[in-house]
Amino acid sequence: MVRKFNKRGQFFGIYLAVITVFLISVSLGFYQVQQKNTGSSLVSPKTILDIGDDLQKFEGFEEAYILASLKEASFGKDEFKGESHFREEFLKKASNNDFMREFIFSDLVSGEIDLGIEAISESEDFFDFVLYPEENFYLEDGNLVIQRNKVGKSLALFADISEKEEAKNFPIDFKFEFSKKYIASFSNGEYTLE
Fold first, then answer.
1. Is 117 within the bounds of a domain?
2. In which region does residue 188 sit, left (phi positive, over 0), alpha (psi from -120 to 50) or beta (all else)?
3. How does pLDDT run across 12-42, given as a tens digit for each residue?
């Protein structure tokens, strides 16, 4: 007696291999097409990193001017008590520094209001009444507190893409708010800043 085997099962493995190779090639094809369009969806973080670096530089100038103004101030023997021209000296130094002015006034917002043009035209008043108002300079537990009010920056970030891909560009709105509080203390004949 001769047995006949059905040979359809032997070819089933070949069918699966062909279908698998076909689906893998389709997936790789989609991947390649998407890679060509990736530039339209990626935004470089360089602008954000530059703002962070500039903020550190700004705060470095701020700290240096606070310490220099404290040394020039005439507080007398009782640390921070007595008449002083500290705030005026600090404001004069800060508002006359070109880097500090440029950093603060570029893309300046307060809440949702763009302040750039208005603030630049009234720049000395902006430093005096908005950024460093008199009530933000006060004594607390024998230390002098200097506080910068919260201001922010708002800008749109765009991806680096070619002109024909411009229709696919999705800009990202970037908002960055910052403020700072310094505590100046006097010990061992030296001013220190925290």
1. yes
2. left
3. 778 889 999 999 999 999 888 877 765 556 6
Q: Is residue 20 part of a domain?
A: no
Q: What residue numbers bound the domain in which 182 lies? A: 43-193
Q: List b or e across 50-84, with b for residues whose CB sees 16 or more CB atoms inside 10 angstroms.
A: ebeebeeebeeebeebbbebbeebebeeebbeeeb
Q: Which residues of the chain have a pLDDT value below 50?
A: 76-77, 82-83
Distance between CA 192 and CA 179 in Å, rounded?
A: 20
3-state secondary structure of 23: helix
Helix (H, G, I), strand (E, B) or coil at 21: helix
CB 147, CB 182: distance < 8 Å: yes
Q: What angle do CA 95, 145, 50 make, to 5 degrees?
A: 50
Look at residue 11 and tell me if it is in a domain.
no
Percent of all residues in the chain with a pLDDT value above 70, rounded to a whole number: 73
Residue 59: name the closest of 188, 179, 192, 189 by CA.
Answer: 179
The per-residue pLDDT for 40 is: 53
CA distance 186 to 188: 7
Number of domains in the chain: 1
In a domain, 67, yes or no: yes
